[in-house]
User: Fold this.
Amino acid sequence: MAPPPDLAFDPWDPAFLADPYPAYAELRERGRVHWFEPTHQWLVPHHADVSALLRDRRLGRTYQHRFTHEEFGRTAPPPEQEPFHTLNDHGMLDLEPPDHTRIRRLVSKAFTPRTVERLKPYVEGLAGDLVSALVDAGGGDLLTDVAEPLPVAVIAEMLGIPESDRAPLRPWSADICGMYELKPSGESATKAVRASVEFSEYLRELIAERRAKPGDDLISGLIAAHDEDDRLTEQEMISTCVLLLNAGHEATVNSTVNGWAALFRNPGQLAALRADHSLVPTAVEELMRYDTPLQLFERWVLDDIEIDGTVIPRGAEIAMLFGSANHDPAVFADPARLDLTRADNPHISFSAGIHYCIGAPLARIELAASMRALLERAPALRLAKEPERKPNFVIRGLEGLAVEV
Assistant:
């Protein structure tokens, strides 16, 4: 599946996946919007456009609140994929007002800033324990030993999922998220459907238990959340829990390993961070900008829009390039340089508008906690071997990050 010969953007090319940022620079130089035939999408590479489009109500994560598939010129998903789409389409990330507004309001009643802040000691304690185990072992894989278990345990703790039930959470999430890549394979779809069925069945049983015996956890809070006569349906609760788990750790896991890989490649910045741990908050933001964990976010065009003289018609799909927007020199001075002191950093790694990441405060707590623990307990942390990048474009991460202490 080759792109036009004159376009450097090729999300299936290993060389591009290793470093997509030079290709983004070319896209930005060549214009504000580009048609990409292999995926039938319009690519938008500039920060100003991406930021505006994320807030533009003429675009939507779905079109089914206004149009049927036929009216929109699209084909319904294959029937065998129904479990995945039922799960995905009832989560607030893939809904538009009024359903999105209602669900986000109800979820926000349970997912409060106080709830998140209350988790901070647990997050910091767990991060310390995980890093201590890594140090005691003389090193290991930062991905599997620290980056993955921390956010998975935190969101599972929030939801009230018992420790004995947590092993399948990460595999379920990985299989479901495989469907968010460009043109996922039939094998990816099969895995996503199976994971959707198994995860949904597990949560349905857990929700029934919490209805009978509420606890001090997020699932109990979602059951109790109401606004006059409005409540979440069971499917909305299941989809919300899966969304919180998937979004709540995929980005955090990849931000952690992408970030440390970037630090190892920039020893001067790593030395500055080791010398001054007060840089951690700005370092977290800069590392999310520098190697963006979610490279692309899609929107449907619900009403015709125009970008730089190009009319993009209703029924088209726009691919907003977060990674490119986060390297736009119109917004970020010397964007290819890692600068952990960068104070003015309006990156869009958490999206914007009504779909701004509800878990952003928790992600920041997790990223800061693991970074501080590694700086304090593994001050000589170093790369053991060059990491391999996952063959994914949309969700950007590594196969592993082998380190020594």
Notes: Residues 20-404 form a domain with the Cytochrome p450 fold (CATH 1.10.630.10). The mean pLDDT is 93. The two ends are 42 Å apart (CA to CA).
